[in-house]
């Protein structure tokens, strides 16, 4: 009996241990390119993704109204002119279906699908100190032994979907925006409750307001917003941006935020009040994130400048809201513009003037639980719904990796290490976890303050080059030294703490997750500076990294 069982165990493919040079977790923007690069180096590499298709963020976030806040012509891979020019965007800020199609175009064009295993979640990764390799397991019971492990898991990919007691008792349907079903949802005549007015909530709310029976939006922290200007692209527009490929490929990696625009409007202190206003008005009219990421950097450091820019935006918002009560509810007053993510929107504020939409303040009367009928607030009021939409965000930066059982040297667990203190070496390695690389991770420029494709390309390229370097030596293992990591954390903190961004509560600081250590998750020293620092490390033979 025992022998038969052993034989069965050995012949079951699930129990087979396969071997790779590199395993990439994720088939989104970073994962696809990392796979492409490592395969190009001749490595035996494979990517795994929990989704059934490519796209990462753009696979999962298929909620109504999901779209870019980066201009489409810069949310691109810039390593290949052919790839860039082979795709034409329909508008400046396209929606999720078009973006997902683009990601599929990339996967096909680079012939990546054959090396991606879909519908597979990586559940654990344990470093074997004897072999210097990672033992990775999947939810389907497979085991993979790999030299390098690269977590291209996304900065905003671990949804906060179980937040309230009683969610499983609700008689209607609850959707988290990042786990939206593929089939269309018919909201006709439905009573819909929306929790969350971040970048996601705003996109959903403005998109479904005219489709629902009745909608209540639960507002805890109001948002500064910028009205999006989203022209359709003509053939001439498309040709014009494609003609600028070379310029963009050089320009984007050097700016503060990886966007085309940069802080080039002069110093705030050198301008007259009228000149400042003229500049703000001009940039406001652009209808992009430029007002936030490329108007006046002083707004991140100087309370007075922050207040003046914030008041400029408040005035714009006030002018659109008819009811003073709505102004009180929807216009921020207790934090500065741009100290956390500024969403672009289209007629979002006007939604609250509709007879079928109501804003409910939950600042002083929080949501207590979900009941079979709807949402119950602290004062006992129950709001009844057919559908509850949770646009409640993510365990940003660290969550995607800490949801995997990752163990480094001496069995140390990443979840525990980051549960105490979120530290990385340039956001790409963690001391104690050799041969583990990561992108979109804490302490590197990321979603918060970077056009993701710019940063993810730079990071995946750095990692691919680093792996190439290791393989060109006699070493088999590379690990950030403790000293290097300490120095990076100190550098990161010194810039972050000089800003007023760290004073505002949001996912930027990890404050949206109870108990999460507080630290600015994204590097705020600028994409150009970050890139230069990474390059310097590589140029010095990966100084600060130990190879064995
Ligand atoms: P965000 O920006 O984290 O927004 C989450 C929203 O959910 C925000 O308005 C929260 O209010 C709200 N929220 C969370 N929990 C509650 C409770 N318990 N009660 C009421 N309201 C709550 O997530 P998004 O998905 O919009 O955006 C994440 C990023 O994805 C975005 O920045 C882009 O870069 C892409 P709070 O502010 O905490 O008071």
If you had to describe this structure to a student in words, what would you say it looks like?
The structure is a single chain. The radius of gyration is 24 Å and the shape is globular. Helix 2 (29-40) runs parallel beside helix 16 and helix 16 (452-472) runs parallel beside helix 18. Strand 13 and strand 14 (374-377) form a beta hairpin. The chain contains 18 helices and 20 strands. The chain is an alpha/beta fold and 548 residues long. It has helices at 2-11, 29-40, 57-60, 81-85, 96-109, 199-208, 235-243, 245-251, 273-286, 290-293, 303-320, 324-330, 348-351, 399-402, 414-420, 452-472, 482-496, 527-539, and strands spanning 17-25, 45-48, 116-117, 122-128, 133-138, 143-151, 173-176, 191-195, 214-219, 226-227, 344-345, 357-361, 367-370, 374-377, 382-384, 387-390, 405-407, 436-438, 478-480, 545-547. Helix content is 32%, strand content 16%. The strands form five sheets. Strands 1, 2, 3, 4, 5, 6, 17 and 18 form an eight-stranded mixed β-sheet that branches. It starts with a helix and ends with a strand. It has two domains: 16-158 and 396-547, FAD/NAD(P)-binding domain; 159-223 and 343-393, FAD/NAD(P)-binding domain (3-Layer(bba) Sandwich). Ligand NA7 is lined by residues 156, 163, 195-201, 218, 220-221, 341, 362, 367, 391-394, 447, 507, 512.
């Amino acid at each position: 009996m025992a022998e038969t069982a052993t034989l069965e165990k050995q012949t079951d493919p699930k129990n087979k241990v396969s071997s790779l040079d590199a395993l990439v977790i994720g088939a989104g923007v970073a994962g696809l390119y990392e796979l492409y690069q490592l395969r190009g180096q001749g490595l035996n590499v494979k990517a795994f993704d929990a989704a059934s298709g490519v796209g990462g963020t753009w696979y999962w976030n298929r909620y109504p109204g999901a779209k870019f806040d980066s201009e489409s012509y810069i949310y691109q891979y810039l390593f290949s002119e052919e790839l860039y020019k082979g795709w034409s965007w329909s508008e400046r800020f396209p929606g999720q279906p078009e973006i997902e199609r683009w990601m599929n175009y990339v996967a096909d064009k680079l012939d990546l699908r054959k090396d991606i295993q879909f519908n597979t979640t990586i559940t654990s990764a344990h470093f074997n100190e004897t072999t210097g390799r990672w033992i990775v397991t999947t939810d389907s019971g497979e085991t993979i032994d790999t030299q390098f492990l690269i977590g291209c898991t996304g900065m905003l990919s671990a949804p906060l979907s179980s937040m309230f007691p009683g969610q499983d008792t609700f008689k209607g349907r609850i959707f988290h925006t990042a786990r939206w079903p593929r089939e269309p949802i018919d909201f006709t005549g439905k009573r819909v409750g929306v929790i969350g007015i971040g970048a996601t909530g705003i996109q959903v709310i403005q998109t479904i307001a005219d489709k629902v029976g009745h909608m209540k939006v639960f507002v805890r922290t109001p948002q500064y917003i910028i009205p999006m200007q989203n022209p359709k692209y003509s053939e001439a527009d498309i040709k014009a941006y494609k003609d600028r490929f070379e310029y963009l490929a050089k320009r984007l990696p050097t700016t503060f935020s990886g966007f085309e625009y940069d802080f080039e409007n002069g110093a705030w202190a050198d301008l007259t009040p009228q000149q400042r206003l003229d500049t703000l008005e001009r940039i406001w009219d652009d209808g992009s994130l430029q007002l936030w990421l490329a108007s006046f950097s002083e707004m991140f450091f100087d309370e007075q400048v922050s207040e003046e820019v914030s008041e400029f935006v408040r005035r714009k918002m006030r002018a659109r809201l008819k009811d003073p009560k709505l102004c009180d509810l929807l216009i921020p007053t207790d934090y500065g513009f741009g100290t956390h993510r500024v969403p672009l929107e289209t007629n979002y504020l006007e939604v609250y003037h509709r007879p079928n939409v109501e804003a409910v303040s939950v600042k002083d009367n929080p949501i207590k639980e979900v009941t079979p009928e709807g949402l119950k607030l602290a004062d006992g009021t129950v709001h009844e719904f057919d559908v509850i939409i949770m646009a409640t965000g993510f365990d940003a930066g660290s969550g995607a990796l800490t949801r995997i059982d990752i163990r480094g040297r001496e069995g140390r667990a990443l979840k525990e290490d980051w549960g105490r203190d979120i530290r990385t070496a340039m956001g790409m390695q963690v001391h104690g976890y050799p041969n583990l690389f990561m992108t979109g991770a804490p302490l590197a420029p990321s979603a918060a303050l970077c056009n993701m494709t710019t940063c993810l390309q730079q990071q995946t390229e750095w990692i691919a080059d680093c792996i190439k370097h290791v393989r060109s030596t006699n070493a088999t293992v590379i690990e950030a030294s403790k000293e290097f990591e300490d120095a990076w954390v100190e550098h990161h903190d010194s810039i972050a703490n000089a800003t007023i961004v760290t004073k505002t509560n949001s996912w930027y600081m990890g404050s949206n997750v109870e108990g999460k250590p507080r630290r600015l998750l994204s590097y705020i020293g600028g994409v150009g500076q970050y890139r230069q620092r990474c390059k310097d490390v590589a140029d010095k033979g990966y100084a600060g990294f130990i190879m064995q």
